């Protein structure tokens, strides 16, 4: 296990108050994939935790209407998790790499999520937060992966994530 972040993450806030722009390129050295580089001027929202709250509320309402009590339990669990985690924390650097990989699309979603987990280990994120974040990304990340949301994060479509 030699994965690491060789450089410091340097960002400035965007005018919208929810996104951040990288001041210089940012890298993660993955054991499995080599060096992953986020380009300068990339925009990130770090960990996209708040949307989980909305998903959980909608799922709970649907579950109640349909009479699916296990579904309601899962939805309430998601809401609880959303309150335990913030968009920034020990996992901020890992979330930035993950945002880039989701926008770059040169890897499978599964590989992107594996890198997120590997990067959270490198960030020394406590084990239970690591598992909660990874589990929720695996469970709900398809919405961002298949949506248009990540197009805003692309800086240069010809850039490659490996050097």
How would you describe the overall organization of this protein?
The protein has 163 residues and is mainly α. It has two domains: 108 residues, no CATH class; 32 residues. 48% of the residues lie in helices and 11% in strands. The relative contact order is 0.17.
What's the arrangement of secondary structure elements?
Elements: E1 11-13, E2 20-22, E3 26-30, E4 34-38, E5 43-44, H1 50-66, H2 69-84, H3 92-104, H4 109-122, H5 127-140, H6 142-146
Antiparallel strand pairs: 1-2, 2-5, 3-4
Helix pairs in contact: 1-2, 3-4, 4-5
Element string (H = helix, E = strand): EEEEEHHHHHH
For the terminal residues, how far apart are their CA atoms?
20 Å
Name the structural class.
mainly alpha
Poorly predicted regions: 156-163
Radius of gyration: 16 Å
Write a concise synopsis of the structure shown.
This protein is mostly helical and 163 residues long. It has six helices and five strands, in the order E-E-E-E-E-H-H-H-H-H-H.
Defining traits:
single chain, 163 residues, mainly alpha, three-stranded antiparallel beta sheet, two-stranded antiparallel sheet, 5 strands, globular, disordered C terminus
């Amino acid at each position: 296990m030699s994965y690491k972040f060789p450089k410091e993450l340097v960002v400035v806030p965007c005018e919208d108050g929810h996104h951040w722009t990288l001041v210089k390129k940012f890298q993660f050295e993955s054991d499995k994939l080599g060096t992953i580089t986020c380009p300068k001027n990339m925009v990130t929202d770090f960990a996209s935790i708040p949307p989980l709250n909305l998903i959980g509320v909608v799922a709970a309402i649907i579950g109640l209407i349909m009479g699916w009590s296990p579904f309601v339990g899962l939805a309430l669990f998601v809401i609880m998790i959303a309150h335990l985690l913030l968009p920034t924390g020990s996992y901020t650097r890992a979330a930035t790499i993950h945002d880039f990989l989701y926008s770059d699309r040169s890897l499978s979603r599964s590989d992107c999520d594996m890198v997120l987990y590997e990067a959270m280990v490198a960030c020394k994120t406590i084990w239970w937060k690591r598992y909660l974040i990874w589990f929720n990304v695996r469970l709900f990340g398809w919405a961002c992966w298949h949506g248009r949301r990540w197009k805003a994060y692309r800086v240069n479509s010809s850039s490659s994530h490996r050097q």
